[in-house]
């Protein structure tokens, strides 16, 4: 059996494609990291050829999978990072779903920042983003408190760890994850643990710089 | 091996628990359909005992799974409604993820309706909800156009069908899914097909009435 040819299409960002890139590195599987620029004529021409009119999507030879979480779950199961039992897989899924619930307020905050109105940025941060972050961090902290491995699910690394850890970097770069705050120390230690996995460490050190 | 005891905790709504209930019916597996009332002292007291401070969650003997999509995927894989290959599973996942992207604008619309300000309802519908519905319907219609089975994934019923079909009923009840519109006929036929599966037909005919 020849190895399938993987191509991962996304913008020149970490965002929702980064955990998929990290999964390829963890598994030592070659892939084509196709990076496009949003808003360019090239992207507009390419867009209708994507499965759902958006990126990321993954092509495996001629088969295409849209939606970031679906891509990551597919790779995680193929490469052994989805959890060791059906129950562990369900927990990894649940954590990523919880993260997806957090992404919507995060996106609102990013849009406000991009629009640049200081009053509106403050309003969205206070009314929408901060409460959502509190809920999300409380859940992740609660899981880490009970974890004996330091990982979010079971005793090994799963794609849920990759999703949550890389997003902490995004939040840090956006100025909304305070590394020195006492209440964030479990999250800081968790991100360090994930970032110390040799393949992740090398990947993160050599990847293109991006805020999100 | 004794059958595990399943308990599904949710509010007295269809919402995100309904596809899980339908999966139990499809598989002819008994479960305890625990329905609580949001905002009651009982719910407030119960809330901190849930895995993520929210419902739905599923308990399987002593093991708990939070987050609706994680619950449905777990049951779908156990009962044979997740897709027949890793690739079909990824497509079912992608469709549900796309649905989750649509739920956030839908929730904004519901919140505006609940608040009751007519101008704001109209604004949210026009600026947020209608564009999101157009994107979502376009994707689902595109999938149905290519489908030879009439289902969203492969040649059989998956949990993605249940999620999308039941949501069409919610949209109909909310007055934002026009059954007579020419452009909606593929979606109408799709919902009929899913609703004609004997177990689903019986379940839907006998379930408690709820708008969402």
TrEMBL record, chains A, B:
Protein's name according to its UniProt entry: glutathione transferase
Catalytic activity, as annotated: RX + glutathione = an S-substituted glutathione + a halide anion + H(+)
Organism: Caenorhabditis japonica
GO molecular function: glutathione transferase activity
GST C-terminal domain boundaries: 85-212
Cellular component aspect of the GO annotation: cytoplasm
Keywords, alphabetical: Transferase
UniProt KW Transferase keyword: yes
GO biological process: glutathione metabolic process
Pfam families documented for this protein: GST_C_3 (PF14497), GST_N (PF02798)
């Amino acid at each position: 059996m020849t190895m399938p040819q993987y191509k991962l299409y996304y913008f020149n960002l970490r965002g929702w494609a980064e955990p998929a890139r990290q999964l390829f590195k963890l598994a030592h599987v070659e892939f084509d990291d196709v990076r496009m620029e949003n808003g360019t004529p090239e992207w507009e021409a390419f867009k209708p050829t994507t499965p759902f009119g958006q990126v990321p999507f993954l092509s495996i030879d001629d088969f295409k999978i849209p939606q970031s979480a679906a891509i990551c779950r597919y790779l995680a199961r193929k490469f052994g990072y989805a959890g060791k039992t059906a129950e562990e897989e369900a927990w990894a899924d649940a954590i990523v779903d919880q993260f997806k619930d957090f992404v919507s307020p995060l996106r609102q905050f990013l849009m406000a920042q991009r629009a640049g109105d200081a009053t509106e940025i403050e309003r969205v941060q206070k009314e929408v983003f901060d409460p959502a972050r509190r809920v999300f961090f409380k859940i992740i902290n609660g899981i880490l408190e009970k974890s004996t491995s330091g990982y979010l699910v079971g005793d090994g690394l799963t794609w849920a760890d990759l999703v949550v850890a890389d997003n902490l970097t995004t939040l840090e770069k956006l100025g909304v994850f305070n590394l020195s705050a006492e209440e964030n120390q479990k999250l800081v230690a968790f991100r360090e643990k994930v970032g110390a996995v040799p393949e992740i460490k090398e990947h993160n050190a050599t990847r293109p710089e991006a805020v999100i």
